Amino acid sequence: MKDLIPENHIDIHSHLLFGIDDGAKTFEDTLALTSAMTDFGIKEFITTPHIIQHVWENNTAIISAKEDEVISLFQQNNISLPFKAAAEYLMDDHFVKLFQNENLLCLKDNYVLVEMSYINAPIQLYDILFDLQVAGYKPVLAHPERYLFYHKNFGEYTKLKKAGCLFQLNMLSIVGYYGESVFLTAKKLLENGMIDYVGSDVHHQKHIEAFHHKVDLKDLNPLKEVIANNQFFATLK
To answer: How far apart (Å, rounded) are the C-alpha atoms in residues 141 and 168?
Structure first.
């Protein structure tokens, strides 16, 4: 997988801010993960800690403070790279209150990274997506291929696209990291031109190691095109 990452890649989904979710635990972890990803060709980072009520009680203030801390520690270690924090929001009632009452942490402009529970989609999913867009945001759905409850009902992906969702594929889905069913769904989404962007979704060293695995696709062009789409986010200074 790593050989397909261009030298100027922008990663839009990772968990590199240490100590605030299930990603990096210490600054040493942050340092090791970003260093490895830089070696893959990633030159800009938009990291996306979870905001999940009662699980990861993050908010804009907590994330922004941690972002400042990490950047300061980078500077102390003579590391200069474009690095900013957005967030990965779980779509639930708490999320609705957030976007109705405050500004969200976006990937760029009004593009916001959202996710669902891996158990089931929210009952009010399409109401949430509609209201989010009325509020002025563009939803980028994280790793649609990983929602197992859609695997036997592919039409739901078409419905999500029609509802205004952009799709962000996890690159490790294409090497089979999350299992065959996720791989096959990722492959089908790519073949149908439904993926808009990619993300690493790096949490820890095992994810880094998996980037050395081979991509099992006969036609790499759809994947390469989607990887190139990430240049849209190349606005960091």
So the answer is: 6
Is residue 129 within 8 Å of 92, Cβ to Cβ? no
Please check whether residue 13 is in contact with residue 182, taking contact to mean a CB–CB distance below 8 angstroms: no
**Tally of domains within the chain:** 1
Across the beta sheet with 42-47, the strand order is: 9-11, 42-47, 83-85
Does residue 236 fall inside a structural domain?
A: no
- Residue 143 · residue 201 · CB < 8 Å: yes
CB atoms within 10 A of CB 221: 9
Span 143-161, pLDDT tens digits: 999 999 999 999 999 999 9
| Count of CA atoms in the C-beta half-sphere (13 A) of 100 | 10
Question: How far from chain centre, in Å, is Cα 45?
Answer: 11
Is 175 among the domain residues?
A: yes
pLDDT in tens, 76-116: 999 999 999 999 999 999 999 999 999 999 999 999 999 99
Q: How many CB atoms lie within 10 A of CB 166?
A: 20
Look at residue 169 and tell me if it is in a domain. yes
The model's confidence at residue 162, banded by pLDDT at 50, 70 and 90, is: very high
CATH number at residue 8: 3.20.20.140
The one-letter amino acid at 197 = Y
